[in-house]
Design a protein that fits this description.
The chain has helices spanning about 10-20, 30-40, 45-60, 65-70, 75-80, 90-110, 110-115, 140-150, 160-165, 180-185, and strands at about 125, 170. By secondary structure, the protein is mostly helical. The chain has a two-stranded parallel ribbon.
């Protein structure tokens, strides 16, 4: 069974690739969680975040942005003492800030609707032959990043946003020979 080359050999990574990555995500909170985790991944490998994801979920109260938006400097200090997560002050503070930005978007139109409008509600289907063909960012991810920053988000550069778009199924970047390419393409229905 062929997979995208980045999936590697570790069972946690293979399971993530085979069951989650590229599957369209429509839940506002889950979309936000994945964007936050992609922000924490900046400068690190995704498997580092994946291995700590349960710790992140516990430390960040299930990634409930409505709870996190009320956090203070005391919560930042508490998280900086948590060895189960990435202890980066800027990323932790950005998460609190991004929870507040999420609340505004969610109240105005829904974070899910805000994000899915960039692809007209239907996942983009790429047809890359090799992993080397997959870009680190695109003009679309540059625009989404710019718009998120305008809404107050931090740690959401074009590369982070593109990785997030791939993970959440806004784009299908499984390579053509990957067994998940066609399966994810079959999930590409208008919302």
């Amino acid at each position: 069974m062929e997979r995208c080359g980045w999936a590697g050999l570790e069972p946690i990574y293979i399971d993530y690739h085979d069951t989650e990555w590229g599957v369209p995500e429509y839940d506002s909170r889950a979309l936000w969680e994945k964007l936050i985790l992609d922000g924490f991944q900046a400068g690190l490998s995704w498997i580092t975040i994946l291995k700590k994801r349960d710790n992140f979920r516990a430390a960040f109260q299930g990634f409930d942005p409505n709870k996190i938006a009320d956090w203070s400097a005391e919560d930042v200090e508490r998280l900086l003492e948590n060895p189960g997560i990435i202890r980066h002050r800027g990323k932790i503070e950005a998460t609190i800030n991004n929870a507040r930005a999420w609340q505004t978007i969610e109240a105005n139109e829904g974070f899910d609707a805000f994000m899915w409008r960039y692809v007209d509600g239907v996942p983009l289907q790429n047809e890359f032959a090799t992993q080397a063909d997959v870009p680190p960012s695109t003009k679309l991810s540059e625009q989404v990043s710019k718009d998120l920053k305008k809404e107050g988000f931090k740690f959401c550069g074009p590369t982070i946003v593109y990785a997030w778009m791939e993970a959440c199924g806004l784009v299908n970047d499984h390579i053509l020979t990957c067994h998940r390419h066609d399966a994810c393409a079959a999930l590409a229905k208008p919302r």
